[in-house]
Amino acid sequence: MTADFDLHAGTTDFYRDPVYYDHEFRNRRADVAWYVDQYLDTDGPVLELAVGSGRIALKAAREGAEVYGIDLSQTMLERAAERRARLPKAKRGNLELARADMRAFAFGRRFSLVSCPFNAFMHLYTRQDAERCLASVAAALAPGGLFVLDVLMPDLDYFQRSPYKRFEGVTFKHPRYGTPYTYSEQSAWDPVSQINQMWFHYDKAEPEGPGPAHYVVQLSHRYYYPQELQALLHYAGFEVLYALGDFEGGPLVGDSDSMLLMCGRR
Questions:
Q1: Residue 82: inside a domain, yes or no?
Q2: Which residue intervals of 52-164 are DSSP H helices?
């Protein structure tokens, strides 16, 4: 089934329109607050992988943390830089941005904290991708440093949905076009690669107004089971210090939505 999955589109489509991206996740705050607390508790600069539009890094920089953010998406980095320019002048230097692949990056310094927030690790579609990323993280961590990441927990009921059915969502005012659109989603799960391919459909709800009549955005997520991810971390030289099931400090259990791991070097 993965032969039909467009992993390039699944890695890039979702991040082509950072204005819509910021609108979509404007009310997602629990992870931002949790990561910002970790950044502020860190002695020295933090390295954030897949910094995106800066939803976490910008808040941390505003509150005084020093953050280096990398991302592969130029459009997201430009959005982050645009938003950084709106910070108070004294805070703008707290966030450095660079275009880099989280599978292969290097800095001339080490960090006490490296983070990979908001399911970004799920864009590592193969074991080799994950191993390369973890090797780069290990090289970037200072002695005694922490690596923190979160991914979605596998949801077997969700994976069993028909790939031929579109599940209707809400009608909303599109932040870029100012026109009402109706959202729907379909997805297909491949149990061998553990990749879930999603197609987000946007249909104009009214014929008048700017914007295309219909467009589709793809997103690919590679799911990791808890013991599998802990094994990958172990053989990359990490140990899991804490495993949480949410951003309020709840335990990791079978019906947790997310898996949040705090790791140190062995």
A1: yes
A2: 57-62, 74-84, 127-140, 156-159
Regarding whether 139 and 162 lie in a shared domain, the answer is no
The reply to whether 98 and 200 lie within a common domain is: no
Cβ atoms within 10 Å, residue 229? 19
Facing residues of 34 across strands? none
* pTM score of the predicted model: 0.96
Q: Are residues 103 and 30 part of one domain? A: yes
For the chain, helix, strand, coil in percent to 5 are 30, 35, 35
> Which residue type sits at 137?
V
For 37, the enclosing helix (H) or strand (E) is helix 30-40
Q: What's the CA gap between 70 and 223, in Å, rounded? A: 22
Domain that holds residue 86: 14-153+225-265
Decide the pairing of beta strands 258-265 and 141-152. Answer: antiparallel
| Structure token digits, residue 10 | 């699944």
Alpha carbon 247 to chain centroid, angstroms: 15
Asked if the structure places residue 2 within a domain, the reply is no
Ordered per-residue pLDDT tens for the chain, 266 residues:
444 799 999 999 999 999 999 999 999 999 999 999 999 999 999 999 999 999 999 999 999 999 999 999 999 999 999 999 999 999 999 999 999 999 999 988 999 999 999 999 999 999 999 999 999 999 999 999 999 999 999 999 999 999 999 999 999 999 999 999 999 999 999 999 999 999 999 999 999 999 999 999 999 999 999 999 999 999 999 999 999 999 999 999 999 999 999 999 99
Count up the domains in the chain and report the number: 2
Distance between CA atoms of residues 151 and 226, nearest Å? 10
